[in-house]
Design a protein that fits this description.
The chain is α/β, with parallel strands linked by helices. It is built from 13 helices and 14 strands.
């Protein structure tokens, strides 16, 4: 294994199916000890990228290295330093939990005199003590994912790639799995694909956002939100005797006079107050202006709140808004059925 701190590296990596570029010349590095969230809408290229990194498919162009080993030239070495958990772990339901972990240890060529200790370790890490006597088909989906995580850890790999490990779990199960991932991430490099941005903020110090096959953002969650350059205000105005305020129009017009290019959205309102969400470009603070606006109009300001743009909004801006890179509109229609069958995942 390479001595560099770079554990996962791609350079101009692409995967092409017919006329469709599922992955389009992406380059990034993940360093030792990082837990990185890999985000994107369905079809963005997340799973395809992960399948390349885990040696399930080969790239069309560019290079990828895991643990210093090239995924094309040395896939066996890549697999030796890597643990992988797909969205739905491939388990053998008729096997017992211990039997399956022994099977996984055998596949990983762990010496027989070390297997008992390795299995005991992953059972502890993944919280499997209570189900050791059960067969896999008796387990809840949450416990099955824990077993899948245990097999990914059985050979003590320094790198983990986890593809939507909580996708089908209930909130309690998801929280437990994320808790295990956070603990595991203290000593390993982890690349975590998920649609749950709460999980990302909880477990990941860094985020990569991919859209239409391209990397569109890379940084800490808070930094990405700050760099968006947008601020949201929430206002609640009570017009008192001014019944026209209940129609929101006068308040929206007044807000536009304060910030001409503001995007104003009316929120559900009660009988007397008008509630607005005001999105403003730039990081300035307009609360004083909004307060003076209310005073000058003799309106009661019931609420005035300033919020930085959250990661969820940054994600939407980058993947469905004007910031999202656009692909040739005809590309999707040109993909042949043969190309489609090569990638069975819904997230190419």
């Amino acid at each position: 294994m390479a001595t560099s701190d770079v554990m996962i590296e791609t350079r101009e990596l692409s995967k092409v199916y017919g006329a469709q570029r599922a992955v389009d010349r992406i380059s990034f590095e993940i360093r030792r000890g990082e837990v990185v969230g890999f985000l994107g809408p369905n079809g963005a290229g997340k799973s395809t990228t992960m399948k390349i990194l885990t040696c399930f498919i080969s790239p069309s162009e560019g290079t990828a290295k895991v643990g210093g080993f090239d995924v094309f030239d040395d896939p066996l070495s890549v697999r030796s330093v890597l643990g992988y958990l797909p969205q739905r772990a491939s388990l053998y339901p008729e096997m017992g939990v211990v039997e399956y972990l022994e099977f996984a240890a055998d596949l990983r060529a762990i010496p027989k005199d070390q297997r008992r200790a390795k299995i005991k370790e992953v059972v502890e890490i993944c919280g499997l003590k209570d189900v050791l006597a059960k067969t896999i088909n008796e387990l809840s989906y949450g416990y099955r994912q824990r077993v899948g995580l245990a097999q990914a850890l059985i050979h003590d790999p320094p790198i983990l790639i986890l593809d939507e490990p909580t996708a089908d779990l209930d909130p309690n199960e998801s929280a437990e799995v994320i808790s295990y991932i956070k603990e595991i991430g203290k000593t390993r490099t982890i690349m975590l694909s998920t649609h749950d941005l709460v999980e990302v903020k909880e477990a990941c110090a860094r985020v990569l956002i991919v859209n239409r096959g391209k990397i569109v953002a890379d940084g800490a969650p808070d930094d990405l939100a700050a760099k968006s350059g947008n601020v949201k205000y929430v206002l609640a105005i009570d017009g008192g005797k001014d019944d026209t305020v209940r129609k929101a129009g006068p308040v929206i017009e007044a807000v536009k006079r304060v910030v001409a290019d503001a995007a104003v959205k009316e929120l559900p309102s009660d009988d007397r107050a008008t509630h607005l969400e005001v999105n403003v470009k730039g990081s300035g603070d307009h609360r004083r202006e909004f307060f003076r606006m209310a005073v000058e109009n003799k309106w009661d300001l019931l609420e005035l709140r300033r919020e930085a743009v959250q990661l969820e909004e940054v994600f939407r801006q980058l993947t469905v808004g004007e910031g999202a890179p656009r692909r040739n509109a005809g590309a999707k229609a040109a993909v042949t059925s043969t190309a489609a069958t090569k990638e069975s995942s819904s997230d190419v």
